[in-house]
Write a structure and sequence with these properties.
The chain is built from 22 helices and six strands. The protein is α+β, with helices and mostly antiparallel strands and 647 residues long.
C-alpha cells in the first residue's frame, strides 16, 4: 500500500520549489525567443498597454506546454544533483531505498504535470492560439506604413494596391512607388507612379495621407456609354508634389477569426477528430474526381469516342500500338496540324495537372496538419515524463547540483529534442515522412535514453567514467599503452633475478616457436576466423609470465635494467585470433560483409603488430639478461653463482 513518508515529502518539497523557479525561467526564455519573431510587428504601432498585455498573456498560455518539459528536466537534474553532492542520496541508498522508490512522489507529480500539459493543449491552447493570431493579424493591419513589403504589391489598404521598390525604415521614405487604385467600376481606375514619398495617418486615424514627389497620374475618365467604342478616355497628369488621401481606419479593431478558426492549432482534440473525418471524405472525393477526369478527359480522343479512347490508351500502354507507324500514315499536309494540336493539348493538360497537383498537395497538407496536431497533444505531454526519467537519473549519476552543470546538460538535451521534433514536424508537413514517424521521432529517440539512464542510475552502474570510455576507445582503435617503470623509493625485497632470467629465457624460446608455427605475416583464412576459429591462449600465457617478470624486476636498483623494462611492449592477447570471444558474434560479423571486412583487416593489423611485439621482446630480453647477470655479480657473488647454475 502506498504511504506518504517523510522522505517523499522532503524530496517533493525540494522539487516543487525548484520546478516553480525553473518553470518561470523557461517560460520567460521561450516567450523572449517567440517575441523576437514578431518584434517588427509591434514596434511603432502605438499599441495601448491593454493590447500589449493581451498579446503577452495569450503568448504565455500558448508556450506553457513547451515550458513544462524543460522545467521538469532542469528541476529534476538539480534536485538529484544536490542530493548526490551532499551525500544524501548515498544515505538514502544505504538505507535500502532504491532511486525509483525515492522518486515515487516526484513520478506522481510529473504525471499530474503531464495531465495539466494535455489540458492546456486541448482546452486552453486552442483558445489562446486563436486569440493570439487574431490579435497579431489586427496589429499588422493597424499601421500599414510599417508593414508594406519591398518589391511586392500590398493590398492591406481598402480599394488600393501599393507597390514600393525600396523603403527607409529610419526616415520613413518610400521609393519607387506605384499605386493601383481600384473601385467597383471599371471606368475610374487609376495608376499613380512616383519617385518617392511618405505615408502617415491623419489625426482622426480614419485616413492615410500620401505625400508623393515627382510622378505621374493615369486615370480612366468616367463614361456612361462605352458600347460603341473600344477606347476608354483617360487623363494623364505630371506632378512634382502630390498629396493623396486614402480611406483607412487605423484604430485597433479585431480581425475576422474565420480563417484562423479553420487552423488545426485552434481546435480541441474532439474538434480535430470530428473535422478530420470530413476532411478525409472530402479529399477522397476530390481524388476520385481527378481520377475520372484523367480517364475521360486526358485520354479522350473526340474522333473515336470515350470507350475507344480508353481501349486505344490501354493498347498503347501494352505496346501493341505503334504511334509512329500511325503518324506516318497521315498525309503530309495534315501532319503539321496534328503535331500542333497535340502540343497545345499536351501543354493544356500539363497546366491542368500542375494545378490539380498543387491543390491536392494543399488539401492533403490540411489533413496532415490535423493529424499532427492530434498526435502532438499526446507527445508533448509524454515528453514531460520522458524528461523526468532523463533528468533524475542524470542528476543521481553526475551528482552536481546548482545552476552550472545541470543547466548545460538541460540545454543540450532540449536542443537534441528540439532538433528531432522540429525536423520531424517539417518532414511530416512536407509529406516526405509519414505523420506518425515525423511526430514520434523525438519520442523514439529520447525514450531509450531515459530507460538506459534510469536502469544505470537505479543499479548504481558507472556511466560517465571517462577512464572506461578511454579504455574502450583504445581497444577499438588498437592504441598502445606505454610502460612507465621508475625506480622505487623504498625496496623491501630484492628481485629474484635467477627466476626472472629463467622466465625471460623461456619466453624467448616460446616466442621463437610460436612465430614459426603461426606465420603471423601471412593473411589468415577467413573461414577459420569467423566460422571455425578458436581462442589462442598461448599469447595470453606468455603475456602473464612476462608481466610477472617485469613486475619483479621493477624492484631492481639498477637504472639500466629499469630503462630496458620500459622497452617491453604490452601485448594484446586475443585481437589477432578472431574479432569476438563468442562464436555466434563472429558468425554474424562474417555474414555481414562490410563489417566482416573491417574486422578481418583489423585482425590482420593486430597479427602484424604481434609479430613486431614478439620481435621486440626477444631483442629486449637479449639485452636485459646479460645486464641482470652483471649487476647481480657486482652485488653478490653467491647470487651470481646461483644464476650461473640455473642458466
Amino acid at each position: 500500500m502506498f504511504r506518504i513518508k517523510k522522505l517523499d515529502i522532503f524530496i517533493a518539497k525540494q522539487f516543487l520549489q525548484l520546478f516553480a523557479g525553473a518553470f518561470f525561467i523557461c517560460q520567460f526564455v521561450l516567450m523572449m525567443q517567440f517575441l523576437w519573431r514578431y518584434v517588427n510587428e509591434l514596434i511603432g504601432k502605438g499599441l495601448s498597454l491593454e493590447i500589449m498585455a493581451q498579446f503577452f498573456w495569450y503568448m504565455g498560455l500558448m508556450l506553457m506546454p513547451q515550458a513544462f518539459p524543460l522545467a521538469i528536466l532542469l528541476s529534476s537534474l538539480i534536485v538529484f544533483g544536490n542530493l548526490g553532492e551532499s551525500s544524501e542520496l548515498t544515505a538514502i541508498k544505504a538505507a535500502g531505498i532504491s532511486l525509483m522508490q525515492a522518486s515515487r512522489s516526484l513520478i506522481a507529480i510529473v504525471i499530474m504535470v503531464a495531465g495539466l500539459s494535455f489540458y492546456f493543449q486541448d482546452v486552453v491552447g486552442p483558445f489562446a492560439d486563436k486569440s493570439f493570431y487574431q490579435l497579431l493579424l489586427s496589429v499588422k493591419q493597424k499601421s500599414p506604413e510599417v508593414e508594406i513589403p519591398e518589391g511586392i504589391f500590398y493590398d492591406g489598404i481598402p480599394n488600393a494596391n501599393l507597390y514600393v521598390q525600396k523603403k527607409n525604415m529610419d526616415t520613413g521614405m518610400l521609393y519607387g512607388i506605384m499605386i493601383y487604385r481600384r473601385t467597383n467600376s471599371y471606368e475610374d481606375q487609376a495608376i499613380i507612379l512616383a519617385d518617392s514619398g511618405t505615408m502617415q495617418t491623419t489625426a482622426e486615424k480614419k485616413h492615410l495621407l500620401l505625400t508623393l514627389h515627382n510622378g505621374e497620374w493615369f486615370e480612366n475618365m468616367q463614361s456612361q456609354d462605352l458600347a460603341g467604342s473600344a477606347n476608354v478616355p483617360y487623363r494623364r497628369e505630371t506632378f512634382s508634389l502630390k498629396r493623396i488621401v486614402l480611406d483607412f481606419d487605423s484604430d485597433f479593431n479585431l480581425a475576422d477569426e474565420t480563417g484562423i478558426a479553420a487552423d488545426a492549432r485552434s481546435k480541441s482534440l474532439d474538434h480535430i477528430l470530428t473535422d478530420l473525418d470530413s476532411i478525409i471524405i472530402f479529399n477522397d472525393s476530390i481524388g476520385r474526381q481527378f481520377e475520372r477526369d484523367a480517364r475521360y478527359r486526358t485520354f479522350y480522343i473526340p474522333e473515336i469516342g470515350k470507350k475507344d479512347s480508353l481501349k486505344a490508351y490501354a493498347k498503347a500502354a501494352t505496346g501493341s500500338v505503334n504511334f509512329d507507324s500511325l503518324f506516318m500514315q497521315i498525309p503530309d499536309s495534315k501532319k503539321r496540324a496534328v503535331v500542333q494540336r497535340a502540343m497545345e493539348r499536351a501543354q493544356t493538360e500539363s497546366y491542368d495537372l500542375n494545378m490539380k497537383s498543387d491543390y491536392s498537395f494543399n488539401i492533403n497538407r490540411h489533413e496532415r496538419m490535423h493529424r499532427m496536431e492530434a498526435i502532438n497533444r499526446f507527445t508533448l505531454a509524454l515528453s514531460c515524463i520522458i524528461f523526468f526519467f532523463i533528468g533524475a537519473p542524470l542528476g543521481a549519476i553526475i551528482r552536481k547540483g546548482g545552476m552550472g552543470v545541470p543547466v548545460i546538460i538541460s540545454v543540450l538535451v532540449f536542443i537534441i529534442y528540439y532538433i528531432f521534433e522540429n525536423s520531424g514536424m517539417r518532414m511530416a508537413r512536407a509529406d516526405e515522412w509519414t505523420v506518425w514517424f515525423g511526430k514520434l521521432i523525438s519520442t523514439m529517440a529520447l525514450a531509450p535514453v531515459a530507460i538506459f539512464f534510469s536502469y544505470k542510475a537505479n543499479n548504481d552502474s558507472v556511466v560517465f567514467n571517462i577512464d572506461l570510455y578511454k579504455e574502450l576507445l583504445r581497444r577499438m582503435l588498437g592504441l598502445r599503452i606505454k610502460r612507465n617503470i621508475t625506480r622505487k623509493e623504498v625496496i623491501i625485497e630484492d628481485p629474484k633475478y635467477a627466476t626472472d632470467i629463467q622466465m625471460l629465457a623461456g619466453i624467448t624460446d616460446r616466442i621463437a616457436k610460436y612465430s614459426e608455427e603461426h606465420k603471423l605475416l601471412h593473411l589468415p583464412n577467413p573461414i577459420k576466423v569467423f566460422f571455425m576459429g578458436s581462442d589462442d591462449h598461448e599469447i595470453e600465457c606468455i603475456s602473464q609470465e612476462l608481466e610477472t617478470a617485469i613486475e619483479d624486476l621493477g624492484y631492481s636498483k639498477d637504472r639500466i635494467i629499469l630503462a630496458e623494462l620500459n622497452h617491453y611492449p604490452v601485448l594484446v592477447t586475443h585481437a589477432h585470433t578472431r574479432p569476438f570471444e563468442k562464436k555466434w558474434m563472429n558468425i554474424i560479423t562474417g555474414l555481414i560483409l562490410p563489417l566482416g571486412v573491417f574486422f578481418y583487416l583489423r585482425m590482420w593489423r593486430f597479427r602484424l603488430r604481434l609479430y613486431k611485439d614478439l620481435h621486440d621482446i626477444r631483442q629486449t630480453s637479449d639485452r636485459i639478461i646479460p645486464r641482470i647477470i652483471e649487476f647481480a655479480r657486482l652485488e653478490d657473488d653467491e647470487t651470481v653463482k646461483y644464476i650461473y647454475n640455473k642458466v
